[in-house]
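anyone seen this seq b4? input:
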Amino acid sequence: MPTYTFVVNGDEVTVEAPSDLALLWVLRDKLGVRGPKFGCGIGVCRACTSHLNGAEIQPCVTPVGECAGQEVTTIEGLASGDDLHPVQEAWLEQDVAQCGYCQPGQIMAAAALLRTKKEITDEDIDRIANVCRCGTYFRIRKAIKSAAAKMG
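predicted toks r here
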């Protein structure tokens, strides 16, 4: 079986896995990274949203073979030591989480958006399209706008 070496949340890892195994299962089952959640398995609900070299991905549909030599960041790696990312801070300030299941993916999608766009519109936020079954979308929107202002 092939092995793949890549960086996860700042640490180099090497895993043995079939090239088409979803990165989500490598993260959760082989590496014990529990932040990205399994929701749909087809990249639609986006509960697993993480970053590959800073860009948003859905690990449930990203083969581990595509990650060799790359840098993967999950919610566990978003903060810098004890300093939360501005999106994480905004989530706490706006009391966004209800059940919390979708929140790692929501936060990672918002962080990816704000990395590339400093002035955001409601349409930009709508394009994130992560599913929140608790319906905290109005608090999510406020948190993203608050984080954008902080990062401004």
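The beta strands are 3-8, 11-16, 50-52, 55-57, 71-73. The chain has a mean pLDDT of 96. kinda curious what u guys think
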